[in-house]
Amino acid sequence: MAGPVLSRWDLLPDALIITAVSLVCYVSTQYPTVPGGDSGELIAAACWPDGYGIPHPPGYPLHTLLARLMIAVLPVGSIAARVNFLSGLCSALAAAMVYCAGRILAVCALSRDDTAPGAAADTAKACIRRKRPSEGPALPDGDGADAALGERALDSDDAVADAACARWGAVLAAGLYSLSPLVWTYSTQAEVFALNNLLLSLLVLLTARFTTAPRAGAGALPLAGAFTFGLGMSNQHTIVLSAAPLALAVALHPRRSLLRPAPLATLAGCGALGLTPYLYLIAAGEAPGRGAWGDPASAAGLAAHALRRDYGTFRLFSGAGRTPQGLPALARGAALYVASLPRQGLVVAPALAAAGAGLLLRRARTRAAGAGLAAAWGVYVAAFHTLANLPLDDAEHGALFREGLFLSLSFSFFLFPPLSFVPPALSVLSLSRFSLSHASRALAHAPAPPLRAVHSRFWLQPNTLLAPATAVGAAAAARAALRACVGGSRAGRAGPTLAAAAAAAVAAQGCLHWRACDRSREWGVWESGWAVLDAAPLGAILMVKGDLNTNAARYLTQCEGARPVRRPPLPQPHARTKLRALRARAPRAPSLTPSPRSPQDLAHLDLSHASYAWFARRQAPPSLSLPY
Predict the structure, then answer these.
(1) Model's pTM, two decimal places?
(2) What is the arithmetic mean of pLDDT over 492-520?
(3) What string of DSSP letters covers 82-134?
């Protein structure tokens, strides 16, 4: 009897349920408006009020195009809420991909037959799909017939029990993954990480299917994988650290023949097709909107933007106080990452992932997929933490954050028209006062110091690689528990018990992290943007630095059509009273269609761009004189 093979119809019902449940959780807790960090920039880049938007390097063209599609297709919600929904949708689909990959690998790892892919699997497949087993060879007469029938019934019960363990182990792994605090946090806001998780989980699914499927049904899988890899490179370049080991495991599979000129050329063409979203950056470079980053209209400018030369191609952080790259950074970052794993999966997930990886490597049928997952995880953790140079010590974080906030407020100044009636000093004081109060409130919910939070979001990728191995480990643990507690004759009827246990664990994960991940009432960043606009007179040139001051105001002006309104200062001295007053007078349902611009509108410039040569010729207004 050969190893079992699951069809898409075996996987689809559970995958749809996982997607729906995850999406409901994400939508219920997502930001109602613009979040902090880079989210405001990514949303504004997809609005296109006066030209095409270009986010910071490497440009994220795939996310920008999908965000634009989401803005145009969804009929309800603010523009920010629509793009936030895109992240939730991508994460929900990623959870479904994790389930499918985990169940495929678990079924193959638990199979009693360990032959290589391509053998017949009729009998086991019938048991997996809960059909009548095939009749098999003729049975002897008398006592021998009774013994043979008993052995066949025991084998059938074992096959059904193994199928149930694989199914509910995959459900458990997908649920723990989708409701882990790190995945959940970046599923409620407009960021590129959820889309990266989706593309990486799809690559893992294709790898699992390719390395375990019969030869006749695997021809198109490498082409789909190459195209998916190209799309991933159009979104976030760190995917190459995981995709390269997976591709190597596929290329070196003993029963496939991809290392020939013709297949390699076809794979290269599919990968290049996945890179076509970068054509958007070329088109956007010809007609950039306000705040667009870089000059990608030329080949040199496109290469500089895609390779992050403004930041440093192999650097995560380019600011002052960055730590040196190398072994010290690897040791510090890897230790923090490993220490964070228990919190992401109810404590037991790391142990289940380790056990599952070991089982995958021991079985001949899953050895190629297990080696690819293990290599992808190890390469990513080692390479990323060696190159990452963010200061991760708490003392360094606090000093750099206070310094950044001070510089951000110091550079928040205005260049006024000659006939302006608002004294510049009072405007600067007003802006600083509101920015400081709303910055502290907007960052109050941050689960980690800002720089460590920036670093930790890159742990989503290795966590996605661990999730299918967690499914295999959970399935193996469930099978061992059934055999120890129930016995082989009744193991085939333990499906409802496994389902209840998996549902209870996933519910516990959701209840444990719901409050910390709930952003449905977070308006702090949106209010801080209004505070900046309230302090600005009409016709001013707003020059600010820092994500909080820059991106919130940019989103409001470019996506919601907000305009600065001159209002008297609030008389209440207490910060909380001021916040309530600001909420009362700020529009809760702003216009979703930007109003036409006029010469009296606010000109918004990001001082983070001012140090680059392209800023003077592409973004600076003619009235602004720069010293270079």
Answers:
(1) 0.83
(2) 92
(3) HHHHHHHHHHHHHHHHHHHHHHHHHHHHH-S--PPTTS--HHHHHHHTTPPPP
